[in-house]
Amino acid sequence: MIAGRGALLLVAAGGAAVLAFVLAWNLAISALQSRLDQQLLLTARAVETEISRFRALPDVAGEDARIAAALSDPAAHEAASRYLKRVADHSGATELYLLNDQGVTIAASNWAMPGSFIGQSYAFRPYFRDAMATGKGQFYAIGVTTGLPGYFLSSRITRNGAQGVMVVKVDLRPLQDTWAAAGLAMALADADGVVFLAGRPDWVYRPLRPLSQDSLARLAAQRTYDGVDLAQAAPLLTRGALAAPGIAPGAMRPALARLEGPGWQLLAAAPTAPVVTEAVGWATGAALMSLVLMAVALVVHQRRQLTALRLRQHDELEARVNERTAALATEIEARRQAEIDLRAAQEGLIHSEKMAALGRMSTAIVHEISQPLAAMEATLAAAELSLPPTDRTTAPRLATVRGLIRRMQRTTKHLKSFGRKEPGERSLVDVTSVMASAVELVTPRARAVGVVPELLPANGPLLVWAGPVRMEQVLVNLLLNALDAVEHRADPKIALAAFARDGALCLTVSDNGCGIAAEDLPRLAEPFFTTKATGEGLGLGLSISRTILGEFGGDLGFAAAEGGGTVVQVTMPLASLAAQDLRAAE
């Protein structure tokens, strides 16, 4: 067990060390590359600044009249040389000299010194050929006369029909002296990749990569590096890595940049030993940290095992407590359910008592109203018989009143039927005529409210099995409720519509009144439930209407109308389906 944990610790430490080494190496190499890139940028600007100081000097020096005279008059050569000597001394240029159109030096700043350029032909140099062809030339090479390297800038001069080339030689070796003093591994190579300036002396005149035979032949013909055997020089870069003599592979990391003007290449390198040291340090720290963390984790794990061992003694007691708690919870839930069932039974008893009270009230209404109504009808019948034959106005009025009394008698019978739960007689009824009759009955009330109920025509007759008076009673009740809802509206609207859908009758009464709250919609048909103010209604109209419709196999539904208001929908089976049901029952 202990050996296994030790092996686990070693594996974890090794993994952490490898991961830390890789991360630290990548970060350090990235930082090193950033430093090298910044170093290349600063060095490139320094080189360009040094060259820019002398770039315009050939053109400026060629503007002098003594230069123009020297191109056409040999007698003016000495004066031109003296002038070039003064210009070179003031500008800091190494040498300044004038070539004729054949590439022969006719005036030079070193005309009076040993190794003078006077009379030397430099027609083979690219800076002469480029200047004669394009007007400008530039070239770095070892001087064939002095043996000293320099950067040659040239410009074509045309004066009085004669042509020549003004050349300035610039010594760039102070740059490499600066690099060497600063300990920088910097190198500047030409377009062919041959290093001509370097902070390390052993890098000078070595190619970055192996040179082709064409490049060697061209450099030899131009005498660019006169006296240097480039074919035997070892390349500095091999497969992108610095492999210079005296430097172990991978010991230094190189970076390259190109100068846009002359096409030269800048090489910067830095040792990777600090990077390795830093990565190893991070890896060692990560290994030690992982060992410490794993040791702490093992200690914590052991403490947890000890705690679990102590807690195991209480498991049995906790299990018993949980069993007892579960039993108590079951008992509490059973009692809660019993209370819910008791409350539901009480609400059912209250509802039954309401229905019983409604039945008793209906019976009392029938008993108290039926006899006065019968007496009124008999009195009106006697009055009608006693009218003289010439009275033609009173008899129709008495007949109308008697019809209303008979309607009231039928209504009291319906209340009696509701109270006793007795089904009334049914016959084929055209709903369209019942709707028209109901609208006619509520017309006086509608006029008082200021609305004319809109009766939408139905497509053909809609026949149902029902009691016509009780159907009319249902519609009158719905219309009166709608009139109450729109009574205080500025633009009251009430509409009745009937249509057939899926073998059933759908009859709707809609209004644009104040509407009914969503929580009150399911209770509208309950007895004694009303949304009207106290004393304005008993809450029995919709309950009686639903009871009547239930006897006819129908139902009553409520919904909110779009834009405000209420829609009450009566659904009943059409006569054909109802007739089939009756025949099946017989």
Proportion of residues in extended strands = 15-25%
Please give the CATH class of the largest domain: Alpha Beta
- Segments where pLDDT lies below 50 for 5+ residues? 534-538, 582-586
Question: What name does the CATH topology of the largest domain carry?
Answer: Heat Shock Protein 90
What number is the mean pLDDT? Answer: 80
* CA-atom Rg in angstroms: 60 Å
User: What is the 3D shape?
Assistant: elongated
- How is the main sheet built? 5 strands, antiparallel
How many strand units? 18
Oligomeric assembly: single chain
Whole-Å distance between the termini?
Answer: 92 Å
- What is the CATH superfamily of the largest domain? Histidine kinase-like ATPase, C-terminal domain
DSSP helical segment count: 15
Structural class: alpha+beta
Enzyme class: transferase
EC number: 2.7.13.3
Subcellular location: Cell membrane
GO molecular function: ATP binding
In short:
With 586 residues, the protein is an alpha+beta fold.
Verbal overview:
It is a single chain. The protein is α+β, with helices and mostly antiparallel strands and 586 residues long. The protein folds into four domains: 2-53 and 274-290; 56-171, PAS domain (Beta-Lactamase, 2-Layer Sandwich), CATH 3.30.450; 174-271, PAS domain (Beta-Lactamase); 425-585, Heat Shock Protein 90 (2-Layer Sandwich). It is 52% helix and 18% strand. The radius of gyration is 60 Å and the shape is elongated. The relative contact order is 0.06. Mean pLDDT is 80; it is low at 534-538 and 582-586.
